[in-house]
Amino acid sequence: MLDAGCGDSALACLIAKRGAEAVGIDADPAMLAVARVRAAEEGLHVTFLDGRLERLPFGDQTFDLVVAVAVLCFVSDSTAALRELARVLKPGGRLVIGELGRWSSWAALRRIRGWLGSTTWRTARFRTAAELRSLVERTGLFVGAIRGAVYYPPVDSLARVLAPADPWLGRLTTFGAAFIAIAGKKHA
Question: Is 170 a residue whose pLDDT tops 90?
Answer without folding.
Answer: no
